[in-house]
Amino acid sequence: xxxxxxxxxxxxxxxxxxxxxxxxxxxxxxxxxxxxxxxxxxxxxxxxxxxxxxxxxxxxxxxxxxxxxxxxxxxxxxxxxxxxxxxxxxxxxxxxxxxxxxxxxxxxxxxxxxxxxxxxxxxxxxxxxxxxxxxxxxxxxxxxxxxxxxxxxxxxxxxxxxxxxxxxxxxxxxxxxxxxxxxxxxxx
Length: 188
What we know:
The chain is mostly helical. The protein is built from seven helices and no strands. The radius of gyration is 24 Å and the shape is rod-shaped.
């Protein structure tokens, strides 16, 4: 009888460990997927930015504008099959800096800003910006659930030995918080 009780307890323990491991793997995969989605959306924003740069090339006649436009055109976000939080944050900074520089050029050329193609590219960029923002929130929510599982007892008993460690959150870009609220809106 004692052997049966020991076997039953061990079986329940093994099933519990398997259950916790499966939950951790699932949350880990969700967070990896969320990072990949952000990376894809950042590349879509880059494509919209590239369209705006091409339009600006047609209008920008002074040397300073051409230099800025060339610098923007040479910057390309890191695209990775398995992006890291650091890569996503670096991409975000790169895109924001390029957008601010391009906006400065566009301010000098009202005919560029009023171009239908340029306006459409701005709208696309803004839509992608919103999608990235939502995906960043989804990622951070998933990381919160994952980190809770990793840190909370009794899951923490399983997480450490199985190699699961806390994940980093995506941080808000400090430069982006300082941007004018109407950066993407058409000005009259």
